[in-house]
Each structure stands twice: as structure tokens, then as C-alpha cells.
Amino acid sequence: MNEVNGNWRDSSGAAVRPPIAWALAVIAGLGLDWLYRLPFVPAAMPAGALGIIVFLAGLALLIWAAGTFRRAGTQIQTTQPTATIVDEGPYRFTRNPIYIGMFLGLIGLAIAIDSLWLIVLLVPFYLVIRYGVVAREEAYLERKFGDVYLAYKARVRRWL
Question: Does the keyword Kinase apply (predicted)?
Fold first, then answer.
């Protein structure tokens, strides 16, 4: 997996950087929406305001989680070594608050611009994050931190 010259590389070996996957989902959704408009929000609903609120909630969660990582002295980027298991802040409730923030951001954009395409693209985005990133991160953390990570994993849910 992450083997370089017989030594394990100290990172998760994620298949893709999550912000890139998120940006690709947004770009694809906007492109599909431009080609074939697919609205889903009822006309009476204040979609713009509601979408912005959901997007900002996701952004706030992402910032809170990233700040918690920084205060703990560990890396946010999947290409960098993890220094410690963080179990404070949003990590008390979910092992993946940054990705949940990304999902909320995508949902918020979908509502704000009234595009079902962005909702549809949540499925491939989730699959890429779940299997190409989270699965690799979990295997890496188990190898690196052993029982400490397994105990954290047993008490905190992956999502919500």
C-alpha cells in the first residue's frame, strides 16, 4: 500500500485529496446544471437563504474541526503524518467532522442554487471519501496508533 523502499510511509495514502474531490463534485454539478437544469426546491421555499445557512453550518464545522487539529498539533492534510488521535471538539461526536462539513457544504450549495445535480453527486462524492479516503485513513491510524485508535473508534461514530 504505502510502501516505499520497504518502509511504510507515514501517511494515509488517500486516493484523492478531499478538497479536490469536493471541488470536482461542485464543478461537475454546476456543469450538469448548466447543460440541463434540474431544480428540486419548492418555489415557496427561500432556497437561497436556507442553502447559505446549510453551507455556512458545514463551513463552521469544517473550520472548528481544522482548528481542533491545529491546536492538537497534528496535520489536516491526508498526505502528511498524523501526530496524535484527536478526541476533542467535534471529534467527540464524529471521527470525520471535516468530511461532514464538506457534505453539508455541497448540500447547502445544492439548495442555494436549486440544483438536484449537486444532490445526485453527493453519492459518488460520498463513495470516494468513504472508500478512497476514510478507509485508508482508518487503516493507517490503526497501524500507527493501535489500541489507542481502536478505543477511540469504539466510542466515537464514523459519521453521526
Answer: no
Place of cell 494515509: 12
C-alpha closest to that of 118 among 10, 30, 12: 30
Dump pLDDT digits (tens) for 50-83: 999 999 999 999 999 999 999 999 988 888 899 9
Q: Per the structure block, which three cell numbers stand in for 49?
A: 437563504
Three-state secondary structure call for residue 144: helix
Predicted confidence (pLDDT) per residue in 126-154, tens digit = 999 999 999 999 999 999 999 999 999 99
**Number of Cβ atoms within 10 Å of the Cβ of 57:** 16
For the entire predicted model, the pTM comes to 0.91
Looking up cell 461532514 gives: 100
